[in-house]
Amino acid sequence: MISPTQFFKCLSDETRLRCVTLMQKEGKLCVCELTTALDLSQPKISRHLASLRQCGLLQDSREGQWVFYQINPNMPDWTGPLLKNALQAVESTTVFKEDLQRLQKMENRPEFVGCC
Amino acid sequence: MISPTQFFKCLSDETRLRCVTLMQKEGKLCVCELTTALDLSQPKISRHLASLRQCGLLQDSREGQWVFYQINPNMPDWTGPLLKNALQAVESTTVFKEDLQRLQKMENRPEFVGCC
DNA sequence: CGTTAATATATGATTATACGAATATTAATA
DNA sequence: TATTAATATTCGTATAATCATATATTAACG
Predict the structure, then answer these.
(1) Fewer CB within 10 Å of terminal CB in chain B, N or C?
(2) Which of A5, A12, A86 sits opposite B82 (nearest CB)?
(3) Half-sphere exposure at residue A16, Cβ-oriented, CA atoms within 13 angstroms
């Protein structure tokens, strides 16, 4: 189970915080969406997502060629309010607004269709 | 002004998180109280307090031979809920309960008397 | 003054993080 | 099967964080 210290370490890197915040707001996102939204290299995004998954903060689910990430719904209770407040703290920043814009402008976004 | 990333970095180290949580709960504390409560070396505590002060998270006030630290009351609004939730997340842990016990058992605790 | 208690800082070693670049893996599709 | 798109990982390196130890500073007090 993730510790408070470890939880804050997850959010202490700008790339990771932007990814988590985007997923908090938008739900499931795949690596290429995050790469586009944050305008960063694919290996960089992928490495941070892997570390967040190892901490248990994220879940991944492969959907054909895409791998979707989302906030792990089975996190301990105390993380819920913290994530909500983190989102509120971040979403008003310029950087995050730009992330969101790039994501919304992105063409050919893969859709998560689940098991149908 | 402190950024969300920087704020989380402050809380991402166990020593710092324990200090901040104790001050959140107990108000002003001096270095020797924190050293006793956390059972760690004085230079280690002092260095972490200095870094928290540099980030703006803490304020210090010298009172004779003692230096008291407290959560900076002039932090940006978005930090309030996060600090409150952090406290709630930490105070149930074994480590923090022990910190609190050592603090309460401490003899000859200096009292902050302010300007009188 | 000289001493002592409280706190801060410097130093050097160690460890951890983050990165770009290159490469590997996986799955879809021609 | 060959190729391509999406994602993951490895490697070497650079930077930052943390630590223990030693020492400096500051204030109180005899």
Answers:
(1) C
(2) A86
(3) 24
